User: What shape does this take?
Amino acid sequence: MSDAAYLAATEDQVRVLREAGHIKRQLLAENPELSGQDVLGQLDQLVIDVSEKAERVTAELVAEAECRHCGHSVMRVGDSAWRHNAAPPM
Ligand SMILES: [Zn+2]
Assistant: This one.
């Protein structure tokens, strides 16, 4: 892993854990009687819901095709420019 990728992955972890802590505090603020088990169950359910949403959004927005120049696979999100999935051949 490159230094830049390592830094990005570490920042991602911090962001995800901060978000989890934020959601936990929100759940407990809404219902202080929740047990630890309840909070973890709701976090698990949230992961399932958001993952399903991400799959739906991906199916809706991501288009894949074959590059008309080199035949490799290309993709685009929404109406952005087409990009090769991997580096195009030289
Ligand atoms: Zn190409």
